[in-house]
Amino acid sequence: MTSATSNPTRNLQDRVAIVTGASSGIGRASALELATRGARVVAAARRQPELEQLVAEIREGGGEALAVRTDTSRERDIEQLVAATLAEYGSIDILFNNAGTEGVFAPLLEQTAETYDQVFEPNVRGVFLMMKHAGRAMLEQGSGTIVNNASMGGLIGFENGALYIASKHAVLGMTKTAALEWYRSGVRVNALCPGVIDTAMPGRIWPSAEAMQEFARASVAGRAGRPEEMAKIVAFLASDDASFISGHGLVADGGYTIA
């Protein structure tokens, strides 16, 4: 087996990575990237057929992967995901907390308690519970790294996006707090803050692909990002190359928030 030292592209060799929301978009791209770098990937999402297809693709490329159907708004599902990972591989070295939803984009006065729950259950409660249960395993083994998908919406505001924006601010807050509590115990916690990425989610927010692209063109980059670009950032934050980084929200928005 080629070592990570002799082959830098395999810098996550034999590490065990859970990726939630792995059935599509940034989660799927990240699962593939982590596997390419040698990680054993546990792919978690609600859509079983898409998970099985992803796992088959990883295995066909010579990697190791396991599919575990998971609804991160349900604590029992999360407990079963963590248990299945430990039973199969014996450790949890990486968690990419990616599962989430945009909810309903509408004026704040039109939002309801139901849409609040729809957003906060996966985006905040799910992230919290995944951090709690996977983090406990990491702390017991004395090492691990967590990357939470927080969005550039965790740093700024958008009209009609009050609930989504608030949920992502909460994710950044939990990221910073966990980083303070766990760094000295060997567990790093960071966040990825993507801008507009060419996935299905923006297509549900903007009325058309052209409207989404017009918004993306307001960034310095002048375009939407690609899931594969975000996946490389996740892999970096999960690797030893980021060993002195914790509690950070890495903004990958093509310069939108500085424009």
From TrEMBL:
One GO term in the molecular function aspect is: oxidoreductase activity
CDD domains reported for this sequence: SDR_c
Q: Which family does it belong to?
A: Belongs to the short-chain dehydrogenases/reductases (SDR) family.
- Matches recorded under SUPFAM superfamilies: NAD(P)-binding Rossmann-fold domains
The identity of this protein, by name, is SDR family NAD(P)-dependent oxidoreductase
As recorded in UniProt, its EC number(s) are: 1.1.1.-
Family annotation (Pfam families): adh_short_C2 (PF13561)
Q: What broad taxonomic lineage does this protein's source fall under?
A: Bacteria, Pseudomonadati, Pseudomonadota, Gammaproteobacteria, Cellvibrionales
Keyword Cytoplasm tagged: no
* Membrane-spanning intervals of the chain: none
Cross-referenced InterPro entries: NAD(P)-bd_dom_sf, SDR_fam
Q: Which UniProt keywords apply?
A: Oxidoreductase
Q: Does the keyword Oxidoreductase apply?
A: yes
